[in-house]
Amino acid sequence: MDEGISRLPERQLLEHRDFIGLDYPALYMCKPKRGVKRDESKETYKLPHRLIEKKRRDRINECIAQLKDLLPEHLKLTTLGHLEKAVVLELTLKHLKALTALTEQQHQKIIALQNGERSMKSPVQADLDAFHSGFQTCAKEVLQYLSRFESWTPREQRCAQLLGHLHSIS
Length: 170
Description:
By secondary structure, the protein is mainly alpha-helical. Helix content is 63%, strand content 0%. This is BHE41 protein.
C-alpha cells in the first residue's frame, strides 16, 4: 500500500536568509527562538517597546499640561519663566492641599451650624482671640508689677501713658 503512494517531499523550513531582499518589515518576520542570537531578538521587539514608551510619555506630558492650565494664575506667577514639569506637580499639590483645607473648614462650619452653634470661629479668628487675651493678661501683669515694685500709681502721667499705649496696640 505504501508503495503505490509516492512520497511527499519533506517540508522545508524557511530561514531568515531566505527572506533577504523581500519587502517585509522586521515586525512581520517569524524567527525561531532557538539558534537566534539575543541581539537579533531584541531588535525585533525594540520598535513596539519604543512606541509604547513614547505613548506613555506623551500621556504624562499631556496630563501635566492640563494640570498647568488648571492652576490659578497667582501660583503660576510665583515662579520665574518656564514652568518645569516638577514645578507644575509641586504647585498642583500645594493648591490641592489648600483646597482640601478650605473644604475641611467649610465642612466644619456646616456641621457646627447643623448642631446649633451660631458662630463657629475660623482658626485664624480663634488665634487672634487667643493672642488678644494673652496680650491683655500680660498688660495686667506689667501694671501689677509696676504698682507693686516700682510704686507706680494709676494717677501718674507715665502710668496713664503706658495704659494708653497698651490700649492702642491691643
